[in-house]
Amino acid sequence: MQKRKRYASIDKKECVACGSCIKICPLAAITVPKGIHAEVNRNQCIGCGKCLKSCPASVIEIVDEVMHKEDISYEKQTKKVV
């Protein structure tokens, strides 16, 4: 049995905190605390990729995590959708 979780990940060092990802996120899973850089709430994010497509700095990627319950291991794949 495996459990899959997709979520957006933002490169905090390169984020310009423009807010375009916040405006387009359908679940309000992205915030810009202290106006420095955007952060994703992994529990809310569904990995739809709308933020990735809206980011003018191209600093967002979609992470696809697969957890295998049998051996308690997990595999993480990062995808940059264009």
UniProtKB/TrEMBL annotation:
PROSITE patterns reported in the protein's UniProt record: 4FE4S_FER_1 (PS00198), 4FE4S_FER_2 (PS51379)
Iron keyword on record: yes
GO molecular function: 4 iron, 4 sulfur cluster binding; metal ion binding
Name of the protein: 4Fe-4S dicluster domain-containing protein
Lineage per the UniProt record: Bacteria, Bacillati, Bacillota, Clostridia, Lachnospirales
Lineage: superkingdom: Bacteria
Keywords linked to the UniProt accession: 4Fe-4S, Iron, Iron-sulfur, Metal-binding
Cross-referenced InterPro entries: 4Fe4S_Fe-S-bd, 4Fe4S_Fe_S_CS, Fe-S_Ferredoxin
